[in-house]
Predict the 3D structure of the following.
Amino acid sequence: MPPKKTKRNFLKEFIKERRVVGAVNPSTKALGEKMIENVDFDNSNLIVELGPGTGVFTDVIIERMKSDAKLLVFELNDNFFESLDARIDDPRVQIIHDSAEHIHKYLSEEEQKQVDAVISSLPLTVFPEKLRHTVLDEAYACLKDNGVYTQFQYSLQAKKLLESRYKNVSIKFTMKNFPPAFVYTCLKK
């Protein structure tokens, strides 16, 4: 999709579905690079991405994945799902049209119980509280020990929420996105 059309589509989806789409613009590749900098791709066999939107991070993840790794991508928005499903043709990638609260269902189908990394673009602060906790609990439960959970947000509101689950939470800030974003990297120990 050409950049202007992508931005227009993203803004349309934001206006239409504010409880699912948390930004007025797609994320930048620079933010994607920051999101994955602590993922050990050489030793990651199964990665989960939550809320990819237009797939900016998805593309960066696919570039770094090993040839035998698997990526499960959860996108609930109909238009974003259809666009990703039509665009991404990689046997290592499964685009799933379902909520992130159902990760375990798909891991069971893959005959796997745990993942190496979860990369989330979900707009946690706009989710109802129960859904926010369910999604974070599901992501935590599916991570292997020493697995990495990364999450970006436009504020520091998610800090306490993530610290309540992960012992090790680091935060970086990047201006190379509109709006600028905080990247949380959480290590499961």
